[in-house]
Design brief:
The structure holds two protein chains of two kinds. Chain A contains no helices and nine strands. Chain A is mainly β. In chain A, a hairpin with a 7-residue loop joins strand 1 (about 5) and strand 2. In chain B, about 40% of the residues lie in helices and about 20% in strands. In chain B, helix 3 links the parallel strand 5 and strand 6 (about 100-105). The longest helix of chain B is centred in the middle third of the chain and has 20 residues, at about 155-175. Classes of the chains: A mainly beta, B alpha/beta. The interface between A and B is medium-sized, with 28 and 27 residues.
Chain lengths: ~100, ~375
């Protein structure tokens, strides 16, 4: 089965999947002519990392920063609330 | 597809429905109003459960919303119910000015006897219904439309497909000379500078940034961690990770037009174009803000499904999520999930516009058919 993920803007480092993707599958990234291998399971419509993203780096979707990595994220990994955090409405004591 | 048939009001506005609004202005009369509503087919009930003792913003905004809902073009006539005559005076003034048929009854008129009040009010409501049912429909252009756009229980299919599609319809309504309103201030967090760049003036630009930062500060000052609230648990399960990610998808419903200005909750826009309403994100409150602003129709996207609907504005529920569309076939009015497989926005835009015009012409939304509509007026603080 061929897996697809949608990337909306050139400098995005994430793309949205359209199927649940098991580990080790080829994922074709639309608009980027790029194929990456999933390194974790990724639920349907969730995000996959298009590069290795170091802790602290911005997550870019649709050309806009949607938060930052709170740990190092491997290319092909599931990106979600376990490894990224919003930059907005941050409470004292959180980072 | 650029015309529709609607009901011309005396003030020049055009309704797409022709409702009798029973507007209850005081909590003391809410049961009375409910009983009147039960006895009048074709009536819509909006009830405000509070009364004396409202302060400042609550006092001002509740009055503005009473006026706004009464003047909504879908409302053909109004039956005002209250326990306190002074609550309705300012509404009556506007109804007279706009030549909208109305009756006003307060508990004192009936000697404080609710049973007598109910009987009298049913008769008065019946008279208005008889009168407005004679209004004939005529053809109008889309410049008479005030469209509101909303999303609720979103997932990534909303932001990637359904909301950009709604954005194209927003652009179409504005290029036709109509009005579009988007609300949910919290859901501009992270995209406020992009929205601000589209403001018609530096005043409006500053105002957009100010209202977003104010609401962000409100969350921080109250110690609210947005994760789990906005995005909520349902959004997170669907795949949305942060408020910024949600905001990108949410704000795109407004299309790409210039932003004319910022509206207070429920405020009626002064001219055509795209308007931002500074308002809470919770759908029931948000939609009533739009009804009060005079919107006749709402495009409402959902990811995992949402059964809410405005009572005064037909609310077209749209999803791009194919599982939701098939699972909730009697909730979703418009399935645009083809976009996921073919990416053909032009085709999807024509299909949605066609469906929108059908609803303007009288085709019913599931919210209307199943009686899922309601209106909820926001509260802002304590009362005396």
């Amino acid at each position: 089965m061929k897996f697809l993920a949608l990337c909306s803007s050139d400098n995005d480092n994430v793309a949205n999947t359209f199927d649940e993707i098991p580990v080790g599958q080829k994922v074709e990234i639309s608009n980027k002519k790029k194929v990456i291998i999933s390194t974790t399971k990724i639920p349907k419509y969730h995000k996959i990392a298009l590069n290795d993203i170091p802790q602290g780096a911005s997550i870019i979707k649709n050309g806009i920063c949607i938060g930052k990595a709170i740990k190092d994220i491997d290319i092909g990994a599931h990106i979600h609330v376990h490894n990224i955090l919003s930059n907005r409405a941050v409470l004292k004591g959180e980072s | 597809m650029d015309t529709f048939t609607g009901y011309l009001r005396q003030n020049g506005q055009v309704g797409i429905r022709n409702e009798l609004l029973i507007l209850n202005l005081t909590g003391l009369t809410s049961k009375v109003a409910e009983r009147i509503h039960q006895n009048l087919n074709y009536s819509k009930l909006v009830s405000f459960e509070y009364g004396m003792g409202l302060l400042n913003k609550d006092k001002e905004i509740s009055q503005n919303v009473f006026i706004g809902l009464s003047l909504n073009p879908n409302v053909g006539g109004v039956l005002l119910i209250s326990a306190d005559q002074s609550r309705s005076e300012i509404v009556i003034e506007q109804l007279k000015k706009n030549k909208k048929p109305f009756r006003n009854i307060f508990l004192g008129d009936a000697g404080s006897d609710p049973l007598e009040m109910i009987t009298t009010a049913i008769k008065q409501g019946a008279e208005i219904l008889k009168e407005i049912s004679e209004i004939k429909k005529n053809q109008f252009r889309l410049d008479k439309i005030c469209l509101s756009v909303e999303c609720g229980l979103s997932d990534p299919t909303s932001g990637l497909f359904a909301n950009p599609l709604i954005g194209k319809i927003s652009d179409k309504i504005i290029s036709s000379g109509g009005i579009v309103i988007i609300g949910e201030t919290m859901e501009w967090l992270g995209v406020e500078s992009d929205l601000a760049k589209r403001a018609v003036s530096s005043d409006v630009r500053n105002q957009i940034e100010k209202i977003v930062l104010r609401r962000e500060k409100l969350a921080i000052d109250n110690g609210i961690n947005l994760l789990g609230i906005n995005p909520n648990l349902n959004n997170i399960e669907g795949g949305l990770s942060t408020i910024e990610e949600k905001a990108i998808g949410s704000s795109i419903k407004a299309g790409s037009s210039k932003i004319e200005g910022v509206l207070e909750y429920g405020e009626i826009p002064k001219k055509s174009g795209l308007w931002l309403m500074d308002a809470p994100s919770y759908t029931p409150e948000s939609l009533t803000g739009f009804s009060s602003a005079g919107s006749q129709i709402c495009l409402f996207s959902t990811g995992s499904g949402n059964c809410y609907s405005s009572d005064l504005m037909p609310t077209i529920r749209i999803t791009a999520n194919p599982e939701t569309a098939s699972r909730l076939s009697h909730q979703i009015d418009h399935d645009c999930s083809d976009l996921i497989s073919d990416g053909n926005f032009k085709k999807a835009e024509n299909k949605l516009l066609e469906d929108l015009v059908s609803v303007l012409n009288g085709k019913l939304c599931y919210g209307e058919i199943l009686g899922e509509g309601s209106e909820t007026i926001s509260r802002f603080g304590e009362a005396l």
